[in-house]
Structure to design on (516 residues):
């Protein structure tokens, strides 16, 4: 009877997880339809500030790469509407997909999104070229790709959250917040946010599940979508550091630590490889075969890094270079997301100072035993990794479900998300669950580095979308919304902030006004 109960409990948890995953999938679709609807509404209601987005000059490398000249397009008005909706960085991505990298400054835009747009435009959407024109098809390909990518990114986010937080309710709330995040306009436009989120969150999900090859492949692809994808190597470094420590001090095997360090270095290098390869590609196209007096300044540098030069030379990106009085409105625009990131990091550090300031080395053996993916080499590798993907949610929550049923008459404790926790010998402390789990620590450190970079180095207004892919923000928001120590006003504030930025962003951004 006990075995049957166990199976029934596991099956119930599995069913709940699947049901909520479907709800997240539907919520992600609804959120994209709302944002796309707002784009259409604002575009039809207002005139764009800049109408140059629809200009389509011939590619430099050839007279015309458009397989469908304008005079032969059957529905030019529809094509014109799509082309006019391509604004801001979307202009660059579509141009690169059509013509390749023509100018030095275009190398600031990494190649994965343009490659995907080009492939879709010549395959799936190729039949539309005679109808609306090639550039419109490129734009359509980008819109469809990014909105579909976002939907699957939301599902991956939910599944990752279930494993990290060990709480389906908290994971569901955080996922819904992600679906309606304040940077939503960028996830439905021709930007890299959706593709990057899918690859980085999906890669971290497989990384937590022990699928090393899949995770490294996805995280490497994320660094070919956005430059900050290379920061995902930090998770590998964090794991390698703790596993090397485990090998030396716990298992007393220094030789094993060397192998761990080598494996971690190789995996980190794989994540860096696409970004490095793209820099080499830029050096080959711009620097090689030129006389010394014809070479660009960055070509002569000891470490010729094209991306850094472009960001500094063309956009003025650099440490404290944005700290000017005239940029105060941009700091105010970014202040909500930066303040929330700071609060999420500070709150985690205040309640778990020993864990945070020791970088996880101060965690107890009990905590490390449920976070072996980061903190120890473990003993259950090999064939069990293949089963981890399906078994983690049920294993994590099965005991919780059964003990909760058996101990309904006993006093209950609650986790940080106000869900009942089992009492007795196997009870775990509230601060060791949910947002305060040591599994969250690497994500908090990652967010801290990104937030500091956004504030001190980058154009600060991009912080809203730059940080929007960080799971910590939504996990903390989910905690704040139900924590007994906070007011319900915080929940209203979070939703009001997201709704306001979705409305304002879709209005300003889609009409070529500055936003973030």
């Amino acid at each position: 009877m006990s075995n049957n109960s166990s199976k029934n409990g596991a099956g119930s948890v599995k069913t709940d997880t699947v049901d909520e995953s479907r709800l997240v999938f539907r919520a992600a679709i609804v959120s994209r339809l709302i944002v796309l609807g707002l784009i259409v509404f604002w575009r039809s209601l207002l005139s764009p500030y800049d109408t140059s987005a629809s200009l389509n000059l011939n590619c430099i490398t050839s007279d015309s790469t458009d397989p469908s000249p304008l005079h032969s397009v059957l529905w030019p008005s529809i094509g014109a509407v799509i082309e006019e909706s391509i604004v801001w960085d979307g202009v660059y991505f579509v141009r690169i997909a059509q013509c390749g990298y023509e100018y030095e400054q275009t190398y600031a835009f990494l190649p994965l999104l343009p490659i995907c747009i080009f492939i879709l435009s010549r395959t799936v959407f190729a039949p539309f070229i005679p109808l609306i024109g090639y550039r419109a098809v490129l734009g359509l390909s980008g819109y469809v790709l990014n909105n579909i990518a976002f939907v699957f990114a939301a599902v991956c986010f939910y599944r990752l959250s279930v494993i990290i937080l060990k709480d389906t309710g908290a994971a569901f709330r955080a996922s819904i917040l992600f679906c309606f995040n304040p940077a939503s306009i960028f996830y439905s436009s021709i930007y890299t946010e959706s593709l990057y989120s899918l690859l980085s969150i999906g890669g971290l999900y497989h990384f937590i599940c022990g699928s090393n090859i899949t995770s490294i492949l996805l995280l490497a692809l994320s660094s070919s979508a956005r430059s900050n994808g290379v920061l995902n190597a930090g998770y590998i470094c964090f794991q390698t550091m703790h596993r090397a420590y485990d090998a030396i001090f716990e298992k007393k095997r220094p030789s094993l630590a060397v192998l761990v360090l080598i494996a971690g270095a190789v995996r980190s290098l794989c994540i860096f490889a696409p970004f490095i390869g793209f820099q080499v590609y830029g050096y080959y196209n711009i620097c090689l075969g030129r006389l010394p007096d014809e070479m660009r300044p960055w070509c002569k540098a000891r470490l010729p890094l094209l991306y850094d030069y472009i960001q500094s030379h063309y956009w003025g990106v650099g440490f404290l270079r944005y700290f000017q009085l005239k940029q105060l409105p941009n700091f105010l625009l970014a202040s909500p997301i930066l303040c929330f990131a700071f609060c999420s990091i500070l709150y985690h550090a205040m309640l778990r100072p020993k864990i945070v300031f020791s970088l996880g080395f101060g965690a107890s053996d009990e905590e490390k035993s449920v976070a072996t993916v980061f903190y120890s080499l473990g003993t259950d590798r090999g064939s069990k990794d293949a089963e981890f993907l399906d078994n983690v949610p049920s294993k994590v929550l099965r005991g919780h479900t059964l003990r909760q049923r058996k101990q309904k008459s006993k006093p209950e404790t609650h986790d940080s998300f106000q869900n009942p926790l089992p009492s007795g010998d196997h009870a775990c402390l509230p601060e060791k669950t949910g947002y305060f789990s040591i599994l969250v620590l690497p994500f908090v450190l990652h967010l801290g580095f990104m937030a500091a970079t956004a504030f001190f180095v980058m154009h600060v207004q991009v912080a809203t979308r730059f940080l929007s892919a960080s799971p910590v923000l939504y996990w903390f928001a989910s905690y704040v919304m139900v924590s007994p120590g906070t007011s319900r006003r915080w929940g209203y504030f979070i939703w009001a902030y997201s709704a306001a930025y979705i409305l304002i962003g879709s209005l300003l951004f889609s009409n070529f006004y500055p936003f973030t």
Q: What stands out?
A: Residues 287 and 299 are 6 Å apart (CA to CA). The chain has one domain: 2-45+143-510. The first strand starts at residue 413 and ends at 414.
